[in-house]
Amino acid sequence: MRETTPISPGEFAKFQEFFYRKTGLLFTEAKRYFVDRRLAERMQATGSASFRDYFTLLRFQASGTELQALVNLMTVNETYFYREQYQFKCLVDSMLDEVARTKKPGRPIRIWSVPCATGEEPYTLAIHLLEHWAQVDAFEIEILASDIDTAALDAARAGIYAARAVQYVPMTVRRRYFTELGDDRWQIIPELRRSIEFTRVNLHDRAEVARNGRFDVIFCRNLLIYFDEHSRRQAAESFFDVLYPGGFIGLGHSESMSRISSLFNVRRFPDAIVYQKPR
Amino acid sequence: MPLIRPTPPPGTDPGQAVPAARLDAADPTERRRAALDRAYPDGPAADLCRRLPVENEPAVREAILTALMTIGGPQAVDGLLPLLRSEDAALRNGAIEALQKMDRDVVPHVENLFADPDSDVRIFAVNIVEALRHPLAPAWLFRLVQFERHINVCAAAVDALAEIGTPDMVPALETLTDRFPNQPFLHFAVRLAIRRITGEAEP
Amino acid sequence: MLIVDDAATVRLYYRQVLETAGFAVEEAVNGMEALEKALSRPFDLLVVDVNMPRMDGYTLLRKVREAPDLRAVPAVMISTEAQAGDARRAYEAGANLYLVKPVRPEVLALDVRLMTGVPPGECPK
What we know:
heterotrimer; A: 279 residues; alpha/beta; 7-stranded mixed beta sheet; 3-stranded antiparallel beta sheet; 11 helices; globular; C: 125 residues
């Protein structure tokens, strides 16, 4: 990689403030090495001669695509079973009990996982519910999982995972919900695969979102941070449309609704902060 | 297994033979839908702007602002600018956020906003201009600090220039401390802006 | 204490003043982020600006006063608005003290000590 002028402390402070205000992600001096390397990579990719030139691009670019490219590089987007598990704990220990209290008899509880990528999140959700929610047999529960990428959806429907993706699933749980295929691959049992509906959805399309029905809980983790400000706000409007009053949204651990929309109330539960549509 | 496979309920497509929602309907859900249904390029900004100041439901307000950001254009700007004087802080800040997204159509108003007799309106103008993705935004703010007499307006502009100012502005920024002697906050803001513009280390 | 202001310069200034006076400080850029932080861990005092995106200072104070865990946290509102009606609105929303910008550092440090019960000359814990 070509040598670039080092980023000065004042420039770093300026970048730190801008990035924090836009995304909610705060990189301290301790993360200098991590941040500098990624900034250098983007400076080279955009042909910026200096940090000043690059910052001007980041700050004034009409499309905002460079900011999105940088956010992509500054965040790690992996998907595996039991990722950010505290939210599922929050779901079964707090959110669902509240949902259940106002649910009319005979009506299903509906949960939406979007984006679901190759299925790790919705299957984790299902397993968590079956294993840990005391009222699981008292309700009908529907889990809908959606993504814009149809290849990912096909993989999700097949439900076959490498050992690395399931490494945090305890072996006893794994034996209940997976079949070992050999060569270190695990497949979700047919019964569980059949119980989740996978649909393609483009969150930028309000009508398409609405076609999936209404929900009590939505998990939209590690997606909106990659959207530009207006698209984020529109996505929040779409979620508001399809949530029941009192319904919840969980975002990724580095995401905050304070950078997205003021439509939802902040709810603090023992395991997580989530957002709630006013009743 | 208590999990059942979901079947999307029929008739939830808002595009299917639903009567047009009215912005003045009694039901806030309908008003919100009415606002979002009007969110398309060249949509009816004037109708939305008329409803905004009298709308009391926060979710409907948010939807109207979202729609106006999608529509943009001079009509939306004309409708939002008077709200900078609103007594309602949530409304005024919503208007600022929307105007920040309307780069091209806000530009013709910058000069008048900076000359407004109300110092708070001038501060809001600084907040709008600093967020515009317009190459002249730094120059406008710089011009403002050179002539502005109100300390809080100057401080807001200096805060913005800390991020988007250029090294040629440093000498003029330094003179601010003489124009506002005995004002520790402004002196702090000027020192910080100069450090961020020149890239010096912060204490 | 938690400093809530969308202007970075203002947050850094209050931080410097309050850290010099011996207080530990955290920051938020708008009312909603402040609410998330205040609900997550205890603060001795909130220092709140009025005009901010997503959630303004009055709305923040009203929500703080509605939240059982936060109802008693003292809050100072600091605004550019110097008219009589502005102070009244701040107190109605739940502020314990209303100051007008620019705030002198010695005034802020002293008021914060008074509101948190730390005697002058003594260092907060």
